[in-house]
Amino acid sequence: MKSLIYNTLADKKKNGKKSFAVLIDPDKVNKGLLDELVELSVTAKVDYLLVGGSLVISNHLDECVQQIKQSCDIPVILFPGSPSQISKYADALLYLSLISGRNPELLIGQHVVSAPFVKQSGLEIMPTGYIVVDGGAPTTVSYISNAVPVPADKNEIAMCTAMAGEMLGMKLIYMDSGSGAKRPVSESMIKSVADQIEVPLIVGGGILVPEKAYLNCKAGADVIVVGNAIEKNASLIKEMSDAVHSVPVTI
Questions:
Q1: How confident is the model over 13-42, as a mean pLDDT?
Q2: Which pLDDT tens digit goes with each residue over 29-62?
Q3: What is the CATH number of the domain that holds 42?
């Protein structure tokens, strides 16, 4: 199984370097906007482009990924909301298991159904423990998953969930308060989790300003993901990227 992108993530974590990823929802971009986002991402030295969403009701995922790949060399990682959101044209796939919920379909059920197709895709598969944190408002991911998010003030629950995910073999932990969250994951929760795991930690949801991205990295996040804020103001890409990459290297 390929592990080029994962090895890069792991090496960055080992060397104390932070990464910034832009999340692109195929439902919310047209060709012109996608070209603009990619151009801004290249200029801002964005590390990864995540493509996907909780629903993805359009049928142009392949076209979206191909357009990105034709325009830049930034690795494209799929962030799927369902087994149908797979494109062989991407570089890697976050193979998400919703470890914060108790919905068996999102823990393993959908993975069983999608396994043959995923294996045949040729994508680099990155097993990811997905932890949804209460962001202060109902989000698409919480509705679709039919799972109760981790309470925002229960750091110990998030910490133990992440530890369990790592010990079960997850190569990444992704903490997400959801698109459009009123309240992003707190720095104290991020630190509680980061202090207890060795795999790279991804954090997203409700990150609206560069200062928050910076503080999340200082707290222990290895990768910051921003989507909703950039959909509203694409010029934030450079500010967010600069903030993440300005975090002092600590080993």
A1: 95
A2: 999 999 999 999 999 999 999 999 866 666 789 9
A3: 3.20.20.390
pLDDT tens for each residue of 156-208: 999 999 999 999 999 999 999 987 788 999 999 999 999 999 999 999 999 99
Domain total for the chain? Answer: 1
Q: Please report whether residue 250 resides in a domain.
A: no
CB atoms within 10 A of CB 57: 7
User: Per the structure block, which two tokens stand in for 230?
Assistant: 């950039």
Task: Give the pairing of strands 19-24 and 48-51.
Answer: parallel
Overall pTM surpassing 0.85 (yes/no): yes
